[in-house]
């Protein structure tokens, strides 16, 4: 039986040429337009970060030089003369005690009394007193005897007493550790909320406006170089405390639970941190154990003063004279919340200048830590997006860090740490933190699969033919 003859379809050369041209055109379009278009629409933008500049930044380039003038006082003749001391010896004592902070030094000047910047150390005959020294503003009086080694004595007073708290704080930060204490994270702006809480519901008013006029110099004069403050006040009435104290005593270990954060309206939605100062008037007499001023400090939150004064009439007023001593307590709380280290020195201006140097160095350290963490994150996750806004904030932070190195300004260092935080938590970066290839395949395979299979089989058929 003869085999059947399979007739092949006859196709005109023109039709074959058109089909081949179309196949070739499709391949060309895929290569020239399709693949680049797919790549551009599925690729993740990664801005080029200044990694070398970040890794090369050294916060120890800052130089805290504390100007000091040594004067010898003759009380009988009422005159002072400049004394030259062994600066190298005193600086060697700094290095010996605090080897981590080679960026801090005492700069001794030979200016006259009226022209001398910084601090004045006045050497006084101490035969009539048992005190080693005393501090009044920027003047440090050191009491010596004829057999006193002046260089050693000055080093001991300045390093082991006057600047001890500052040096210890800077040394702790230089080791990469956190400062102990109750201070809030630094901010260029804070909200201060003064609240009067009255138990029992009896109406009462307070002359807080007049009292705050005496509190304002602390904010405007002393603390202006560090931060600015927005002050507000409020009165709230409550029927009873969150818990009862039958003996009228609040133990120290129960202070943490005294404030009822759930029921008391103490929340804030402002972008700036809020520091609360609360005066609580209980219905019954209430005292805090081991607290002579009947007040306590809450870490990173604020201060509380319990005032045992209930209104005796339908409405009474807390006078300005009653509020001023309480505001003095709150002023001390505020300095601690801002990070003022504990010190044996009573001079607030001197301690605040130390605080400025501590905050400046801490902000520089935190800024650099944020930027290095961001670089490490971008290098470890290759699929993470790095938007242009992140790069611009990094550059801004680095510029402000450079300025802070030169100016030693709290504001410049504060802007640096704010910019580094904005770079790390950029919303475009957070929203698309990770977009792996499996997600691309899941999205585009249903769309490109059918089209791609037709194109591939057509190309294979064309090649075979």
From TrEMBL:
<protein>
    <recommendedName>
        <fullName>GPI transamidase component GPI17</fullName>
    </recommendedName>
</protein>
<keyword id="KW-0337">GPI-anchor biosynthesis</keyword>
<feature type="transmembrane region" description="Helical">
    <location>
        <begin position="441"/>
        <end position="463"/>
    </location>
</feature>
<keyword id="KW-0325">Glycoprotein</keyword>
<keyword id="KW-0256">Endoplasmic reticulum</keyword>
<dbReference type="Pfam" id="PF10510">
    <property type="entry name" value="PIG-S"/>
</dbReference>
<comment type="pathway">
    <text>Glycolipid biosynthesis; glycosylphosphatidylinositol-anchor biosynthesis.</text>
</comment>
<keyword id="KW-0812">Transmembrane</keyword>
<keyword id="KW-0472">Membrane</keyword>
<comment type="similarity">
    <text>Belongs to the PIGS family.</text>
</comment>
<dbReference type="InterPro" id="IPR019540">
    <property type="entry name" value="PtdIno-glycan_biosynth_class_S"/>
</dbReference>
<keyword id="KW-1133">Transmembrane helix</keyword>
<feature type="transmembrane region" description="Helical">
    <location>
        <begin position="21"/>
        <end position="38"/>
    </location>
</feature>
């Amino acid at each position: 039986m003869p085999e059947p003859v399979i007739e092949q379809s006859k196709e005109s050369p023109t039709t074959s040429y058109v089909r081949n041209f179309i196949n070739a055109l499709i391949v060309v379009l895929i290569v020239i337009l399709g693949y680049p278009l797919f790549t551009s629409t599925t690729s993740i933008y990664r801005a080029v970060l200044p990694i070398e500049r970040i890794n090369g930044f050294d916060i120890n380039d800052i130089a805290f030089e504390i100007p000091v003038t040594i004067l010898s006082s003759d009380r009988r003749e009422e005159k002072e003369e400049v004394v030259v001391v062994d600066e190298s010896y005193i600086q060697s004592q700094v290095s010996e005690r605090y080897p981590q902070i080679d960026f801090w030094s005492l700069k001794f000047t030979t200016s006259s009394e009226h022209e001398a910047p910084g601090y004045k150390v006045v050497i006084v005959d101490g035969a009539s007193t048992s005190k080693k020294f005393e501090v009044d503003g920027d003047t440090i009086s050191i009491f010596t005897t004829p057999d006193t080694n002046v260089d050693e004595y000055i080093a001991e007073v300045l390093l082991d007493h006057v600047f001890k708290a500052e040096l210890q704080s800077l040394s702790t930060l230089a080791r990469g550790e956190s400062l102990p204490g109750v201070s809030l994270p630094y901010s260029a702006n804070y909200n201060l909320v003064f609240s009067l809480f009255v138990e029992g519901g009896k109406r009462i008013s307070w002359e807080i406006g007049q009292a705050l006029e005496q509190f304002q110099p602390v904010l405007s004069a002393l603390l202006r170089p560090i931060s600015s403050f927005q002050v507000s006040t409020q009165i709230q009435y409550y029927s009873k405390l969150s818990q009862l104290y039958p003996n009228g005593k609040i133990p120290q270990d129960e202070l943490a639970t005294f404030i009822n954060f759930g029921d008391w309206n103490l929340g804030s939605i402002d972008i700036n941190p809020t520091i609360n100062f609360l005066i609580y008037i209980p219905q019954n007499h209430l005292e805090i154990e081991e607290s002579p001023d009947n007040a306590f400090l809450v870490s990173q939150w604020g201060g509380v003063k319990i005032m045992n004064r209930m209104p005796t009439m339908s409405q009474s007023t807390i006078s300005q004279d009653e509020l001023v001593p309480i505001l003095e307590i709150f002023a001390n709380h505020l300095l601690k919340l801002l990070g003022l280290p504990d010190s044996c020195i009573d001079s607030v201006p001197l301690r605040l200048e130390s605080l400025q140097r501590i905050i400046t160095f801490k902000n520089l350290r935190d800024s650099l830590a944020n930027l290095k963490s961001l670089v490490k994150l971008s290098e470890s996750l290759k699929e993470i997006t790095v938007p242009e806004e992140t790069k611009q904030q990094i550059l801004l932070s680095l510029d402000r860090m450079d300025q802070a190195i030169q100016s030693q300004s709290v504001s410049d260092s504060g802007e640096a740490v704010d910019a580094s935080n904005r770079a790390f938590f950029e919303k475009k970066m957070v929203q698309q933190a990770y977009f792996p290839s499996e997600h691309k395949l899941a999205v585009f395979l249903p769309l490109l699969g059918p089209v791609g299979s037709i194109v591939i089989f057509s190309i294979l058929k064309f090649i075979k033919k």
